[in-house]
Structure prediction request, 266 residues.
Amino acid sequence: MSHPKVWSSLNDDYIRFAALFKKKTGIDLVLYKEDQMRSRLTGLMKKSRFDALVDFYYALAKNETLLTDTLEHLTCNESEFYRNAQRWSVLEQRVLPEILHGNERIKCWSAACSTGEEPYSLAIMLAAFRQSHEIQVLATDINQRAIQIARAGIYRAESMREVPKLYLDNYFELREHRYAISEEIKRCVRFKSHNLLADPFEGGFHLIVCRHLLNYLKDKTTEALLGKFSRALKKGGFLFIGEVEQILQPLRYDLEPVDAFFYRKR
Prediction:
């Protein structure tokens, strides 16, 4: 497949593609690590039988299905309930008691929530405190298809490996080899589409969970995002990040480490 518009070299093909893609979708790929985005694009191009980014872009411009598939492929990350269960135990046993103490209204945010496993994990942990506290769980992601899956709340067994049996029995129903989250928990989470790198943030959060996104971002993008997260947290609020991520010089963002992958707003 070819197109009369030819880009000048392989060195700038990605930059040109990213600029046109931003105009088309509002998503700025330049803010992400190029090698990771290139790898995802290459896999999708091979699957769709394209050799050049220029040809792939002009196909996206004409084919909404291909564009939707590309958006999903570039922005959706795998998720599961209670991923890295030891860290969720720290959240349950150390962080949440500190948040709940002295706060009748609790506001939490699962940022880049993918298909909803993490915000539902959080909502289940907080379910026992709903009679004594007013609890809000906001869950956002840039990928609208992922948000649709999250709202449906139906998951494969592979996502459930770390779910404690008590939670599995109380908050899930097995339907044709898949697990459906209870309506009680679904009502606890407010899902919406949101671009962390472009859209304004709400504020006043006691807890922000953002796991497995920072490692995809360029350093400058990460720094800007951490500053925005810090400003969105209440004093004493917590940021919970992924197990392969770390925050260098957390004091720059008025954050202090309290446990592995947990930071408190000073």
